[in-house]
Amino acid sequence: MDPAEALAIVAAGVAAGAVNAVIGSGTLITFPVLIALGYPPLVANVSNNVGLVPGALFGAIGYRRELRGQRRRMIQLGACSIIGGVAGAFLLLGLPERAFDAIVPALIALAVVLVVAQPRLATALAHRRRDDNERSLTVRGLVTASGVYGGYFGAGQGIILIAILGISIRDGLQRLNGLKNVLAGLVNLTAGIIFVFAAEIDWAVAGLIAAGSVVGASVGARSGRRLPPTALRALIVVVGSVAIVRLTLV
User: Fold this and answer.
1) How many C-beta atoms lie closer than 10 Å to residue 198's C-beta?
2) How many whole angstroms separate alpha carbon 229 and alpha carbon 51?
3) Domain locations in the chain as residue ranges
4) Does position 82 have pLDDT exceeding 80, yes or no?
5) In whole angstroms, what is the distance from residue 72 CA to residue 241 CA?
6) What is the largest CA-CA distance in the chain?
7) Model pTM score
8) DSSP codes, 86-154
9) Which residues contact 65 (CB under 8 A, 6 or more apart)?
10) Contact (CB, 8 A) for 104 and 125
11) Quick check: 184 pLDDT over 80?
């Protein structure tokens, strides 16, 4: 790895950390960079996953004020995320990567539609929701499924999570965004632990992404917390659309 490649990986890590803290889908920045530099897809995927774990931690810390009062949610839905992350990691190690790549653009497109429709859907479903809706089997199942996806590949996991949480739980979008950071971080951590023992990791790549993602997440959390809900939704749509294009082309 020459200095120019190392700089490109760090820069991608910074951008991914910032995007993950605000929205999710940072993998769509780092993964294509690694592929362009010649890393095998599986090595790129697992090294990227491990490298983004520190950034996920700093992203969650950056939203600590929004996480106040959400301990029960973090415990209940966090357990679902961990289960999904385990399943997704083992799927990645046991199945051909192309088998899942084919449906990823459709999943992200659905998530973007859900985010756009979230205010109207929330109003329509308000009479059916309770403040403790995170206990429902449907929400737990969807969060677990997003964990499976995140453990397998992860690009757009944050977009899918924020769509699920926004429609299912009655709370402010920024608070749910903080919860999303915790859940996505747990998925990355869980899958990363499995990859350390069962997959080939390029530790130089993982280290560079980790360093960049910590910086990016710290900056992204400070900026993202100031965004009004409408601007945050617009940003989610833009990043989600770019993610679909990139996944189709990569």
Assistant:
1) 13
2) 29
3) 3-249
4) yes
5) 33
6) 58
7) 0.83
8) HHHHHHHHHS-HHHHHTTHHHHHHHHHHHHHHHHHHHHHHGGG--TTGGGSHHHHHHHHHHHHHHHHT-
9) 225
10) no
11) yes
